[in-house]
Amino acid sequence: MKLYSLCSKIDENKLNIFFFNAFSNEIYKYIINKNKIEYVCSFNEEKISGEILYENMYLYKNKIIMIPENAYKIAILSSDGNKKYIKWNRQLIFKSFKFENIIWCILKDGVIVSFNLDNYEIIEHSQKSRKLKLLTNGISIQSFQLNFIKGNIILCQNKKIIEFNIITERSEVYNVPIDKKIYNCMYDGRDYWIQMYSNLDIIKLDRKSGNIEYFVHDDIKWGKLNNIIAYSDVKQIENDIFLTGYYTENVYKIDINSRKIKKIPEFPNEYNVRNTIGFGPLFSGMHYVNEQIIFIPFRSDMLLKYDMHNNKLDKLIFQDKNNNRVNDRIITMSMDLLKESFFDLNEFLNYVCNKRTVNE
After folding, report:
1. Three-state DSSP class for 292?
2. What is the pTM of this model?
3. Is the Cβ–Cβ distance between 335 and 23 less than 8 Å?
4. Among the listed residues 187, 147, 152, 149, the one whose alpha carbon sits nearest the alpha carbon of residue 166
5. pLDDT, tens only, 287-313
6. CA separation (Å) from 209 to 96, 182, 213?
7. I want to staple 55 with a disulfide (CB 3.0 to 4.6 A). Which of 69, 205, 313, 336 is the partner?
8. How would you classify the pairing of strands 341-342 and 212-217?
9. Nearest one of 162, 166, 134 to 150, comparing CA atoms
10. Backbone angles phi, psi at 346, to 5 degrees
11. Is 284 helix (H, G, I), strand (E, B) or coil?
């Protein structure tokens, strides 16, 4: 079975990284000091049906909060093991983010809904929704790539970056003088690092001056699947910018001095996902702890750790609740409950698309 972890979160003390299996109701944690992965719990009120149950997970005051995608309830796990479920009777969530004690949810129809993490109150914000819709010129919110920075929704489309502050409702538009369309961007506190469609290079946009710099790839190759999206994540760690492969085959680092995007060490030999399904998003998250970057896999049975000081990649094999290795060749949508298995990526994607079409 492959894990299919859509997201991961590290606790404030940097002791544990929590993540969930997208097609089941299970949560796991990686205990950093012990270099060990443990099963945490299952939210058994949600039935496993082959759909992605949760859009995102958040940590707040020693609680884990699961935000629904196809689940019917918000699920909350307290540190004492108690679970609480709150009915969610809204449309499907497109994206969510946490700012202070509020989880802001942007629904697929562009409506903004907030969930208060202290009193569990759910509020629909009609004025904020209207202002966001005006910024998108009536185009579906699903046509945009969204990021979130300290209360700002960052929208990317074509050659524009739009900032919308969820609290003040103020907005700012940046026109980027490039030929390609923008796929996504990351903000490091001063500059935007921009990824373009069908392009392996990265652009740095100075947010104040509007000046741009190109950082070109150093012999990076596209995967076998397609050449639309190069990187699934762009993240600043210390003074470096790291990129994880989407339809490229590795993890990369931007060399600021040479303005080159370079590959960090080769993956372990056992990491054969790239050879079996033609690449695609490799990791759902990367976390920096004690001079190591921990990569949580999206569709693999292997967690990777990059030692920045020694420039070395190490691995940790996933095991299920019965301490059996998660098979790297077969995709099973749940550790022990779902029986659907696939030996081919296209077969798997067709199954998921058909299920979503029927249910939507």
Report:
1. strand
2. 0.82
3. no
4. 152
5. 999 889 998 877 666 788 999 888 888
6. 30, 19, 12
7. 69
8. unpaired
9. 166
10. -60, -40
11. strand
